[in-house]
Amino acid sequence: MKKYIIIAISLLIVFLQSCTDPAVTGVSLDKTSISMPVNGTASVSAILEPSDIFGRVQWSSTNAAVATVVDGTITAISEGSAQIVATVGDFTASCNVTVTPEITAITLDKTKLRLKIDSTQTVSATLTPLLPAEATNNLMWISTNPEVATVDNTGKITAVSLGTANIVASVGTLTAICSVSVYDYIPPSLAGTNYNLIYLDAPTVDIIGTNNIVTDFRSDGVNNNFYVWNGLNAGTLTGTNFYGNTDWLSFVVTGAGGWSGAAINVKPNAQLDKLKAITDDTSGKYYLHFAIKSSTTNSYAFKLGYGASAATVVLGTASMESTLPFGNFTRNGQWQEVEIPMNYFKAKGLRYTTGMATTDIFVMLAGGTAGVKLEIDAVFIYKKP
Questions:
Q1: Residues 6+ apart with CB under 8 A from 141
Q2: Which of 61, 69, 107, 234: CA 20 to 30 A from 219?
Q3: Are residues 168 and 119 in the same domain?
């Protein structure tokens, strides 16, 4: 009887060994090195050989004060290095872990975007302190409104439907946000790049997006100032501006004094140096854009620059400022869009340089006939696609 019991026990042991100790011939990890910040997490997976075998993986860290591991999920504890080891039977594989300083801030290269439906744009994140590229594996991307815009784990945003959404990049409790507006139609004049703003309402600036704005010369009362000369009084705003919002410039000529005009004047600052790219450009894609409305037949003159390199364009049928008309516009009291190639001004001698002194970025002249209105909006220089 004892003989049969011993045989039964021996067979059971062989059976259990065959179930719990599979024929594993090797183990490897899907990552052999990882860089991650303090408090970051990352995952590694064990790959057994042969590929159709299953076995119990034991995980361990050679320096638990730096990094710990549970079922392949690594948590960074403090700066330093450690090895994460996976063991299956007699086989082991390791991943070298470098723990970098804790992330203190996240910044995005774009904080506002306007996208047409079905278009895409990629947002890049910078971590502070600057860390190896692998550390961005800890960056999480989400959309607050995926029905409007989605985002993948590389920061690529896809516009889905009309509306707004925030794209949020986060590491732990740190976040950075890019506001996305999705449109079914964007006016061509707002779909360019390299915008140099002179006068534009805030909602339209949001459509352009801060990442598309090179310079902002809109009046701020400090470096950028709006001057009105004798001969103009403030006009009355009725209706909406060129882009359907509420702000624009409206004046009425009094007939008294000089030019009956106004100007945006900029003091010397680093922003002025950025204008050099406009007159250095050889692509012919830069344009002066503005909108104007009138019901009268008089001519209007507009100047870019100041002093010897200033250049004038005249709209109407009569010369002004010793300049022949460039063309005219429809005089029906409705907004008319005007776009003039910057090459036109360059041919007249306009040159932007670095280190420019105080200058009038944009001058508007309405002549001296009392009662004439000067109504203008959406003044900027930009580069067409």
A1: 151, 152, 153, 154, 155, 167, 168, 169
A2: 107
A3: yes
CATH of the domain at 232: 2.60.120.430
- Note whether 52 and 150 are same-domain residues: no
pLDDT tens per residue across span 84-123: 999 998 899 999 999 988 888 999 988 888 888 998 989 9
Q: How many domains does the chain have?
A: 3
- Give the end-to-end CA distance of the chain in Å, rounded to a whole number: 94
Q: How far apart are CA 298 and CA 366, in angstroms?
A: 8
Same domain? 285 vs 348: yes
Closest residue by Cα to residue 108 from 151, 79, 164:
151
Distance of alpha carbon 133 from alpha carbon 306, whole angstroms: 47
CB atoms within 10 A of CB 344: 15
SS3 161: coil
By DSSP bridging, strand 26-29 and strand 46-49 are antiparallel
| Helix, strand, or coil (residue 67) | strand
Q: What is the pLDDT of residues 265-296, one digit of tens each?
A: 999 888 999 999 999 999 999 999 999 999 99
Query: Which residues of 71-147 form beta strands (DSSP E)?
Result: 73-76, 80-88, 91-100, 105-108, 112-116, 120-122, 125-128, 140-143
Residues 251, 129, single domain; the answer is no
Of 266, 251, 180, 252, give the one whose Cα is nearest residue 215.
266
DSSP codes joined into one string, 288-308: EEEEEE-SS---EEEEES-GG
Same domain (yes/no): 306, 280: yes
What pTM value is reported for the model?
0.63
Q: pLDDT tens for residues 184-213?
A: 888 999 989 999 999 999 989 988 888 899
User: Hey, what are 206's tokens?
Assistant: 């949001």
Q: E strands of 184-299, at which residues?
A: 193-199, 213-216, 224-228, 232-234, 249-253, 261-266, 286-293
Q: Residue 350 corresponds to which amino acid?
A: L
Among 189, 28, 211, 202, residue whose Cα is nearest residue 108: 211
User: Residue 248's domain spans which residues?
Assistant: 188-383
Based on its alpha-carbon atoms, the radius of gyration of the chain, rounded to whole angstroms, reads 33
Q: How far apart are CA 350 and CA 147, in angstroms?
A: 48
Count CB-CB contacts under 10 A for residue 210: 14
204 with 305, same domain: the answer is yes
Task: Match 């005089």 to its residue by tokens.
Answer: 331
212/240 same-domain check? yes
